[in-house]
Design goal:
Strand 4, helix 5 and strand 5 form a beta-alpha-beta unit. The protein has helices at residues 8-20, 34-46, 57-66, 83-93, 108-116, 129-158, 170-187, 201-208, 210-227, 251-267, 297-313; strands at 26-30, 50-54, 71-75, 99-104, 121-125, 191-198, 233-238, 241-247, 283-290, 319-321. Helix 3 (57-66) packs parallel to helix 4 (83-93) and helix 9 packs across helix 10. The longest helix has 30 residues, at 129-158. It has 11 helices and 10 strands.
Length: 325
């Protein structure tokens, strides 16, 4: 089961925490045999690991609940709570946990079964310390590679996202629009673009302060994202202006979406919106479509911008559909 992150900050915090422990991985050893616990503790401690021990399954689960471990090593055959139960609970608490099970020769089949349940590897008894070190090193290396790949994906995503609103940023918008126009040309499909601007946003910002303005921008970005289709691409074009790319969408269909967005924005509640001239926060929208209004990316943006300018000039809180003069 792959661990899910609720937002960028959640993933960033997780990666930062793992970085802090990277130089000295923390290992939990779970075994009801004192001699084996001490043997593993001494051997792993000498290797530079931070080692914690548990005398059985109950103690192990308690420690996993309150501590982060880079690696958990658990014996399978233990009284009351066995290693399979420890494995299951560890994966329930932290789906990303790496668990190595330890077993006697008689229970190798159980060890294989545990790997099907999510164990990273298994070690058979009697122990060979050098073999244990190799398995631990291999497991931690695999964990590090996975984390680095995840971190790379995270920062790749971060470079495409507007930090305030968490929709696509200006640079990504241009890349996405270029790509979608090329796809529309290839398959002879329609494509529409909406440019959206918050009416009298300077009044709202100047009266309520920029922090309140930032909150309004975030709320609107959320409204646009939730109110559009999954295939639509929402971006912050700059300042208080947004852009929405609508793939495989002609003018009439795009106009329906635009009208819905304008209505939802007007009917939504924004803190202290009464300072605005109409007492309510509204948006203006300019709409143009490919290929009827433009043959390339820049021309489509220009056509949408002209329609937006007309919407603002005609009194705001309007959707204007581009029409060549």
């Amino acid at each position: 089961m792959e661990k899910k992150y609720t937002d960028i900050q959640d993933l960033d915090d997780t990666l930062s925490a793992e970085k802090m422990s990277e130089n000295k991985p923390k290992i939990l050893v779970v075994d009801d045999e004192e001699v084996l616990r001490n043997l593993l503790f001494d051997a792993l401690n000498d290797e530079g690991f931070e080692v914690d021990v548990a005398t059985g399954g109950f103690e192990a689960i308690s420690k996993i609940n309150t501590n982060h471990y880079d690696l958990i090593m658990t014996d399978i055959l233990m009284p009351e709570v066995n290693g399979m139960q420890v494995l299951g609970k560890a994966k329930e608490i932290d789906p990303d946990a790496d668990v190595i099970v330890m077993t006697g020769y008689a229970s190798v089949e159980t060890a294989v079964q545990s790997m099907r349940l999510g164990a990273a590897d298994y070690i058979t008894k009697p122990f060979n310390i050098d073999h244990i070190k190799i398995i631990i090193s291999r497991t931690l290396d695999r964990r590090s590679l996975k984390r680095r790949a995840e971190e790379g994906d995270f920062y790749k995503k971060l470079s495409r996202i507007d930090g305030l609103t968490e929709v696509y940023n200006h640079r990504s918008f241009h890349q996405l629009l270029e790509s979608e126009i090329n796809r529309a040309k290839r398959y002879n499909r329609a494509l529409s673009l909406m440019m959206l601007d918050i009416d009298d946003f300077k009044v709202y910002n100047d009266t309520n302060g920029h922090p309140m303005g930032d909150i309004a921008l975030k709320e609107l970005a959320w409204i646009f994202t939730k109110s559009c289709r999954e295939c639509d691409l929402v971006a912050r074009y700059g300042g208080d202006e947004f852009a929405i790319i609508l793939p495989e969408t002609d003018k009439p269909e795009a106009a329906l979406i635009g009208r819905r967005l304008r209505t939802i924005a007007k009917e939504s509640m924004f803190d202290k919106e009464e300072v605005l001239p109409g007492g309510t926060l509204t948006i203006s929208i300019g709409l143009a479509s490919f290929p009827v209004d433009a043959k390339d990316k820049n021309a489509l943006i220009e056509s949408s911008d002209k329609a937006l300018y007309e919407a603002k000039s005609e009194g705001k809180n309007k959707l204007v559909i581009y029409s060549p003069s």
